[in-house]
Amino acid sequence: SFKRDSYKSFGFVSDATSLLSNSDSVLGRDGVKESIAGYERLFSGARKNVGATTTADSIQHREKEYATMVNSFYDLVTDFYEWGWGQSFHFAPRLKGETFEESIYRAEHYLALRSNITPTSKVLDVGCGVGGPLRNIQQFTGADITGVTINEYQVKVGNQYCAQKGIDQKCRLIQGDFQKLPEKFEAGTFDAAYAIEATCHSPDRKICFSGVNHCLKKGGLFVGYEWVVLPETGYDEKNPEHVRVKEGIEVGNGLPTLATSQEVVRALEESGFEVLDSFDANRNVHSDREIPWYQTLYGSFTLSGFRMTHIGRVCTHSIVSALEFMRIAPKGSVRVSSLLNATALDLVEGGKEEIFTPSFFFLARKK
Fold it and tell me: What is the model's pTM?
């Protein structure tokens, strides 16, 4: 039977069967099909009619239903993410000679460094996923870290991993809505906070960031990486091809709509923060000293990274199709796999054209 292990990655075929029908899941066997159908309705017209999901009505519908949208998205994709990517659900700038895993750790440790996290710090992880960064940063700094995710399944999985590593007294995941942080925490609870490619799910960043501000002590630091489109390097909202890529990224990642870096900075400032630093951590994406952040999705054929590549995703999709046909994987699993495969292509295209980055870095201090 399937057993999660915080110390190892999933086997390519050996764990696929049990992972897609594991007992940890909060969805019943019929729940996947129902959930993906409901999710797809929130993006009606996506990948069929360019501009269909960029209308004010479409965006407002997702903003209104964001809690259901994001929770359903992660019920559906958490196992696929962990299978193909690992426990840290994010990208990272990557230097030549650096492995994918090393780049992930460096990006997380950089946040800890810039936010002055120490062994005595109390820290909030805003939108923590299954807690990969939370555990890595805790082991790097010794800090006490609380992660918040809207998704019950991720809480269940993440706390298992914390216990397996023997750090569950120093870090834990709780279920909560990062749009309603004041309902979870008293004012001034934390010394620092970070968000890694998470608040792009927010329907209103000012509300989200104001909640983070509430949770921090005066002078507390908030750092993060944000998914944004890049008008400064070429994104044009009037270019149908750019809009197509943007919409593809949104539908494949449960986003109401992608913001610009300027909009992120403005939301921080309007939420009671002083923005001390901000930049695209992928600004040198095509330097001869870096490996593009999207390269893992695009090509490099290595044994350890095979599942992340285009060929690996095709193979995984075939396995999922076979498992669903044999009624081992729940109905709807193939549709989830197709959704993620399509958005991987959009992410690569956005990265190649430098019209999108998943790593807009910010450092802000509570006034």
Answer: 0.88
